[in-house]
Amino acid sequence: MLIKEKAEILVNCKAYIDASEIKIKNNPLNKGNHILDYKIYDQNGQFIGIISDHIEIKNNELIQTFVNNQEVLIPFKKENTIEVNHTEKFVKANIPEGLLNIYLE
Fold first, then answer.
1. Which backbone phi and psi does 10 adopt, to 5 degrees?
2. What residues have CB less than 8 Å from 48, skipping those under 6 apart?
3. 60-67 and 90-93: which strand pairing?
4. Is 93 a member of any domain?
5. Residue 55 covered by a domain
6. 55 near 73, Cβ under 8 Å?
7. Is residue 53 part of a domain?
């Protein structure tokens, strides 16, 4: 059987990939390093929480953290990122006014 014929058998078939085999896109904000478990602070230096996930949605990256056991999603874009410190493992971000209140009320 030719390679082309073998490939045609796979057309329109579902493919399953082990999650451990997926490589994370090289994000210029985190320089390819994982920011999970980093601390996140607001623009005033107030501790918000620990980063539990980095969610990549087209044109809208988010940082997931938990405050008082409540999920909080914070925009993670170049425009609102003040500092990513890989040595001390923290992210400092300009968090839009009122955003945390939406989650915590």
1. -85, -10
2. 40, 41, 42, 65, 67, 72, 74, 95, 100
3. unpaired
4. yes
5. yes
6. yes
7. yes
> How many other CB atoms are found less than 10 A from the CB of residue 73?
16
Length of the chain measured in residues: 105
Backbone angles phi and psi of 82, in degrees to 5: -85, -45
Among residues 50, 44, 82, the alpha carbon closest in space to that of 63 is found at 50
Closest CA to 38 of 1, 76, 90: 90
Question: Total structural domains in the chain?
Answer: 1
Residues 26, 56 contacting (CB under 8 angstroms): no
Strand pairing partners for 72? Answer: 65
Strands 39-41 and 90-93: parallel
- CA 60 centroid distance within chain: 10
Report if residue 13 sits inside a domain.
Answer: no
Mean pLDDT by runs of 10 across the 105 residues of the chain is 72 66 50 76 96 83 91 90 92 92 84
The whole-angstrom distance between residue 99's C-alpha and the CA centroid of its chain comes to 18
